[in-house]
Amino acid sequence: MTFKSLREYLAWMYYQYLLITGIYVLEPWEKSIFNSILFSAIAMVIYTSYVFVPIHVRLALEFFSGIFDVVRPVFFFFF
């Protein structure tokens, strides 16, 4: 893929983003506020997923291993 075709593809994706969200009708300052709020919300979802999902997965594994009496590895006894 050449640089020109990549640039055209990214421009097309941005145009699709503008059309799907409907922000093509907004003024530039309104677009920046909308994009800032959207970016902040996505960043918060990614951060909370990074922080809390591993904890919940570990707790779920411990819970289900206790229910089904699965032999836990030795390193689980230290935590």
UniProtKB/TrEMBL annotation:
It holds the Pfam family SPT_ssu-like. InterPro entries: Ser_palmitoyltrfase_ssu-like. It is found in: Endoplasmic reticulum membrane. It is a multi-pass membrane protein. Pathway: Sphingolipid metabolism; Lipid metabolism; sphingolipid metabolism. The chain crosses the membrane at residues 9-26, 32-52. Keywords: Endoplasmic reticulum, Lipid metabolism, Membrane, Sphingolipid metabolism, Transmembrane, Transmembrane helix. Its main location: endoplasmic reticulum. GO terms for biological process: ceramide biosynthetic process; endoplasmic reticulum organization. One of its GO terms (molecular function) is serine C-palmitoyltransferase activity. GO terms for cellular component: endoplasmic reticulum membrane; serine palmitoyltransferase complex. Component of the serine palmitoyltransferase (SPT) complex, which is composed of SPTLC1, SPTLC2 or SPTLC3 and SPTSSA or SPTSSB. The heterodimer consisting of SPTLC1 and SPTLC2/SPTLC3 forms the catalytic core of the enzyme, while SPTSSA or SPTSSB subunits determine substrate specificity. SPT also interacts with ORMDL proteins, especially ORMDL3, which negatively regulate SPT activity in the presence of ceramides. Component of the serine palmitoyltransferase multisubunit enzyme (SPT) that catalyzes the initial and rate-limiting step in sphingolipid biosynthesis by condensing L-serine and activated acyl-CoA (most commonly palmitoyl-CoA) to form long-chain bases. The SPT complex is composed of SPTLC1, SPTLC2 or SPTLC3 and SPTSSA or SPTSSB. Within this complex, the heterodimer consisting of SPTLC1 and SPTLC2/SPTLC3 forms the catalytic core. Within the SPT complex, SPTSSB stimulates the catalytic activity and plays a role in substrate specificity. Belongs to the SPTSS family. SPTSSB subfamily. This is Serine palmitoyltransferase small subunit B.
